[in-house]
Specification:
6-stranded antiparallel beta sheet; 10 strands; Jelly Rolls; alpha+beta
Length: 225
């Protein structure tokens, strides 16, 4: 039962790919404010070497450089397998801000794309809104991944890194991070509920059923939308 349920959960999660994300190659307007630059950035796990300091994701160097096949200015996560233990990268604005777009740029090293799968969640005042991510990206082949979503007002964003193209599924890289203010009012009410547990941490039948119900709601919302 648990084995078949886990298989269904993996398939269902894959079916959500790009459900709220538009991958585009066009750049954002030159005068658009990148809210990430003035935010507090925190990663659950990072390489300690200075060349991979977290500040590199907002230095603007990769954004201005069309050649992003190498990681000369980037942040990198650690050696933990992302499939077993996803890595949460948090962007704290310090106060509520209206947002409707996030751009995550990664790179390729040794012909391996260093980030292919991630979810984006918003803070709902007292906890994360884990009921419905702002964006879902799976198996992306684009280095610059722009996700547009219904405007929300939030003080923090969590980018949950889930996988990359390395055989060992570790050392994720972010070359540049951009989060832009929404032009209109928030159209979605956030609901606190906490981030979903990684699949590897779902140990009981009740937990598996709860995650299945969550994915079914997201799939239904995708179909109706």
């Amino acid at each position: 039962m648990n084995v078949s349920m886990r298989c269904w959960l993996r398939v269902a999660a894959a079916g959500l790919a790009l459900s709220s994300c538009v991958l585009l190659s066009d750049a954002c307007p030159a005068d658009a404010e990148n809210l990430a630059r003035s935010a507090k950035l925190t990663a659950a796990r990072s390489l300690s070497a200075e060349p991979y300091a977290i500040a590199h994701v907002v230095d603007g160097k990769v954004t201005a450089n069309e050649d992003i096949q190498s990681c000369e200015s980037c942040w990198a996560g650690d050696a933990t397998d992302l499939r077993d233990d996803p890595l949460d990268f948090v962007v704290d604005f310090g106060r509520p801000r209206g947002i409707d777009r996030i751009v995550v740029t990664t790179c390729r090293l040794k012909n391996q794309q260093r980030l292919t799968d991630f979810d984006v969640y918003a803070w709902a005042g007292t906890d994360w809104d884990g009921h419905q991510p702002l964006a879902v990206v799976r198996r992306s082949r684009e280095l610059r991944m722009e996700c547009r979503f219904e405007p929300v007002e939030t003080s923090k964003v969590c980018i949950r890194l889930l996988d990359n193209a390395r055989p060992t599924h570790n050392f994720p890289h972010i070359s540049e991070l951009e989060i832009f203010a929404a032009e209109g009012p928030a159209g979605r009410q956030l609901k606190p509920g906490g981030l979903p547990k990684p699949l590897s941490e779902l140990s009981t039948a009740d937990e598996l059923e709860a995650e299945a119900a969550r994915l079914r709601r997201l799939l239904d919302a995708k179909k109706s939308g």
